[in-house]
Write a structure and sequence with these properties.
Layout: H1 7-21, E1 28-32, E2 48-53, E3 59-63, E4 66-69, E5 72-76, E6 81-82, E7 85-89, E8 95-103, E9 110-112, E10 116-117, E11 122-125, E12 129-131
Parallel strand pairs: 8-9
Antiparallel strand pairs: 1-2, 1-7, 3-4, 4-12, 5-11, 6-10, 7-8
Length: 133
């Protein structure tokens, strides 16, 4: 059995992450190739495919352990490649969390309609929710 949390603990953890996302300027979500490093570790041979910059006030709400972000402005994809994972970082570039990326309905932390992104096209995330485990 994996550890589960009470709603109060989930809400507290979500509040901490929401505060971190709002700290130090504009936070980012960067989508990378390859496999995420262990424990939000140092990036080695993974390549950034696209970096999405969050609004200066990125959090729309935090309720029941769910952070809802305001819509994120679209960004141009830098390279043609397959996305493997994503990283949330605060405005100072400090890594906050790594996210599994998968197709819609996959149950991944970040679900996209395709994992194969093409340089020069644009990616927009309009309905982002981060759920505490």
């Amino acid at each position: 059995m994996s550890m589960t949390y009470s709603l109060a603990i989930k809400q507290a953890r979500a509040n901490i992450l929401a505060s971190a996302l709002a700290a130090n300027g504009q936070s980012t979500i960067t989508l990378y190739t390859g496999v995420a490093p262990d424990g939000v570790g140092e990036i080695t041979d993974q390549a950034a495919v696209v970096t999405l910059t969050l609004d200066a006030s990125p959090v729309a709400s935090v309720e029941s352990g769910v952070i809802t972000l305001v819509p994120i402005e679209e960004q141009m994809i830098l390279v043609t490649d397959t996305v493997g994972w994503a990283r949330l970082a605060d405005g100072a570039g400090t890594a906050l969390a790594d996210l599994a990326v998968g197709l819609l309905a996959s149950g991944a932390d970040l679900a996209l309609p395709t994992l194969d992104l093409i340089a020069g096209s644009y990616l927009r995330l309009s309905n982002v929710q981060i759920r505490e485990a």
